[in-house]
């Protein structure tokens, strides 16, 4: 080894601390980006807040016209806020990845010491930050304007939030894998993917209203048991641990599939020499 | 004895059934500067990409600083770096933010101090607060080089380092690289189709054509062996050769292909 060149001490690649430093660097890069662009921050908060206001007024109307809503005033607002956790979770991961594609930075990252798994973890952290920035103000405003308190769900809210966020990550990873596989032309999927799941996620209505064959599909997604669990708390006052366990089991499967697809797509992109070309 | 900076053996890469790199073998010793010279599509960028682990070889072996780049590239990526006109730094981040980000990503112990050093060396002080997207081509190249040097790499891979630069900036860049190499002792592998650059920087030249290394040697020796006055004439001789690929056979003037 040439002594003259080894003036920067380099940490062992597999050690935890350097891995955390690299993940931190990636998060810092996105924080820099958000700091330099207030419209991005505003956009994060805009849609959840607008959605919440819309459903707040719908709730007000339905309170006097629907016995179902009258059982629990916060039902629709809680549903829309939890749906936004799933949506923002997926979009946050996909957009953080797309930022690297748009800025043609994927090549730089791919030859840096950042491992694909660390890249994924940094995308998850960014997704969490983006989701919190988007959903927390809307949840606060819901209390102020509509007396609908998402936090009244209590401790199960942590479970619901975590499961929906993880499901969002899983879908986001699949979207990123698709972009790695077919190129930037697939980026519109980042906005569309999650809405495909909305009708069978039973966000605003029980799974039982779906046709039988769609009910099977609904119960095979982690989102439907979460929303059923939310309704069980708000309407019946019961915490359904069975639904929570069902959702948790499923989300771990989906997350494994998502991570596997992302890492495989990354490997294929290396084999096909696509990492320099994506974003051009 | 230290490992060579680069050892490439029988490297092959196919893209969609077409060969991009064919049976390429070479070594870059520690502290040496080697140039891959060839026309567009000769396989230079693909070869460099395989050295970085950015592209997986179809066959052959790549070892960088003693490590297999297919299996163990993460053992060595923090000791090398690269610069290419085909990748950008994040445009919305300032130069300072970009360099601090890459400093942390490469595990540089004191990224701010390293940034200050590079800002002085590469005359970046006036650019630090400027977003990457607002830089001129010459400024971008300097910033990209700063990124490539942020971790004081033992091996620097440069893909067309002076592409799209005006002659003055290109000349400054070559001078800087020459000086940096002498000071740091790092090995440099550069891909270029700029003869001036190659003659000035490289001790060894590998001439590529259609994915193969068709000749190799010191710039002066190559010029002499082909009976020409400049490396450009050698390059044109090889680039315009109409005979089938020689697989490294002698293409020198007068020699039977």
Succession of helices and strands of chain B: EEEHEEEHHHEHEHEEHH
Mean pLDDT level of chain A: 88
Per DSSP, the total helix count of chain A is 11
Number of strands of chain A: 0
What would the principal axes of the Cα set say about the shape of chain A? globular
Poorly predicted tracts of residues of chain B: 246-257
User: Which sequence of SSEs, written as H and E, runs from N to C of chain A?
Assistant: HHHHHHHHHHH
SS-derived structural category of chain B:
alpha/beta
Q: Report the radius of gyration of chain A as a whole number of Å.
A: 21 Å
The main sheet of chain B orders its strands as 6-7-8-3-9-10
> What is the alpha-carbon Rg of chain B in Å?
18 Å
Mean pLDDT of chain B: 88
Which two chains touch over the largest interface? A-B, 45 and 55 residues
The largest sheet of chain A is: none
CATH fold-type name of the domain at 6-86 and 153-239 in chain B: Rossmann fold
Explain what you see:
The complex is a heterodimer of chains A (280) and B (257). Chain A has 280 residues and is mainly α. Chain A has helices at 16-35, 38-63, 67-70, 75-102, 106-110, 116-146, 156-182, 189-197, 212-219, 223-236, 241-272. In chain A, helix 2 runs antiparallel to helix 4 (75-102) and helix 7 (156-182) runs antiparallel to helix 10 (223-236). Chain B has a domain at 6-86 and 153-239: Rossmann fold, CATH 3.40.50.300. Chain B is 33% helix and 24% strand. Chain B is built from eight helices and ten strands. Chain B is globular. Residues 246-257 of chain B have low confidence and may be disordered. Classes of the chains: A mainly alpha (280), B alpha/beta (257). Chains A and B meet through helix 1, helix 5 and helix 11 of A and helix 1, strand 6 and helix 2 of B.
